Amino acid sequence: MDRFAKYLLTALICIVALGQFVQVITRYVLQVPVMGLEETMLYPTLWLYIFGAVNASRENTHIRANVLEIFISTEKGHTILAIVGEIISLIVGLWLLSWAWDFTRYAWRVWKESPTLYIPTFYSDVALVVGIALMMIYTAWHLWTHVRTLTGRAGA
C-alpha cells in the first residue's frame, strides 16, 4: 500500500506540474492559452489534494496541536489522549462521510458537466467520499493500535 500511494501521489504531482507548465508556456510565452486546460487540471488537482490528506492519515502525520501532551507526563496518559483524539476524529469524520455520501448521491443524480469540455464533474466530486472513507479506515486502524498499546497487546 505504501508503494501504491507513493506512485499515485508522484504521478498526480507530475500531471499537475506538467499541466501548469504547459499553461504558463502557452499563455505567457506563446500568447496562446489552451482552452479547457484549467478544467482538465481540476481533476488531478482535486484527487491529489484528497489523496494527500489520505496519505497523512495513513502515515498518522496530520498536523496536531496537542497542548494537553505538555501537561501529561506518562506514556499511558499520552496513549489515552491519543485514543480520545482518535474517537473524536472518528465521530466527526463519520458525520462528514455521511454528508459526503449525500453529496455524491446528489452529484450522481444531477450529473453536472464542466462548462467548456463537458467533462462530468462527478469524477472529481466522488473524490471527497472516497478520501473521507479511506481516512476513516486509517483513523479506526490507529484507534485500534492505540487501544492494543494501552491494553498491552501491541506486540502480541
Summarize the structure in words.
- The protein has 156 residues and is an all-alpha fold.
- The chain has one domain (41-151).
- It has helices at residues 2-29, 37-59, 68-71, 75-110, 122-151.
- Helix 1 packs antiparallel against helix 2 and helix 4 runs antiparallel to helix 5 (122-151).
**What does the main sheet amount to?**
none
The rough form would be described as elongated
Task: Report strand %.
Answer: under 5%
- The run of helices and strands is HHHHH
Quaternary structure type:
single chain
The total of beta strands comes to 0
Helix content: over 70%
Count up the helices.
5
SSE class: mainly alpha
Radius of gyration of CA atoms, rounded to a whole number = 20 Å
Total of domains:
1
Head-to-tail CA distance between termini:
23 Å
**Poorly predicted parts:** none
What is the arithmetic mean of pLDDT? 93
Q: What brief labels describe this structure?
A:
0% strand; 5 helices; 156 residues; mainly alpha
Outline of the structure:
This protein has 156 residues and is mostly helical.
Question: How are the elements arranged and paired?
Answer:
Elements: H1 2-29, H2 37-59, H3 68-71, H4 75-110, H5 122-151
